[in-house]
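Reminder to self: tokens first, then the designed residues, so the page reads top to bottom the way the pipeline ran.
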């Protein structure tokens, strides 16, 4: 039996959940790379303030928009220990 030939005009659609996730992640990565999508950055915490960041996740005292960032590198790119 000859291999199946797919027309360039016809788009392949995901067949199961794994394929669906792959298509979603590819779309998100493409949007980030092209600048069409920009993540909303919320609150930043230094590594030394990790306990406070955990409380913020639970209590949402500074709001619920954006991602909570736990910085593990200083301004020079060195690891904070």
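Designed residues (81 positions):
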């Amino acid at each position: 039996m000859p291999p199946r030939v797919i027309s360039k005009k016809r788009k392949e659609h995901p067949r199961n959940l794994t394929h669906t996730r792959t298509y979603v992640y590819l779309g998100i990565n493409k949007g980030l790379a092209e600048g069409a999508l920009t993540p909303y950055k919320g609150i930043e915490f230094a590594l030394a303030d990790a306990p406070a960041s955990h409380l913020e996740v639970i209590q949402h005292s500074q709001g619920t928009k954006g991602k909570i960032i736990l910085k593990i590198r200083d301004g020079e790119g060195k690891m904070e220990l």
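The mean pLDDT is 79.
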